[in-house]
Write a structure and sequence with these properties.
Length: 88
């Protein structure tokens, strides 16, 4: 995040939300960017899967990148794929 703004990455010409399982992994990724004033933010799973992120159709991103690492292809989920998995 930068202030209250969420930092997105581009994937397949759409906005993608990068997520990591630990603050350290996110911080390491941020160090490889040329963007200033970014910091990792903890989001509880209930909030992430709830209305704040994936629970609404008005999400500002189309995909979720699982633990991206510079120079490697991340695991990519569409928001609709994650929503479908949550319903099962």
């Amino acid at each position: 995040m930068a202030g209250k703004a969420v930092f997105m990455l581009e994937a397949k010409n759409e906005n993608a939300l990068p997520v990591w399982v630990s603050k350290d992994s996110a911080q390491k990724f941020l160090e490889g960017l040329e963007v200033q004033n970014l910091s990792p933010a903890f989001v509880p799973l209930n909030n992430f899967f709830g209305a704040a992120c994936l629970g609404t159709e008005g999400a500002k991103f189309a995909e979720v990148l699982a633990a991206p690492v510079h120079g490697r292809v991340p695991l990519v989920y569409s928001v609709s794929e994650l929503r479908a998995k949550l319903k099962t």
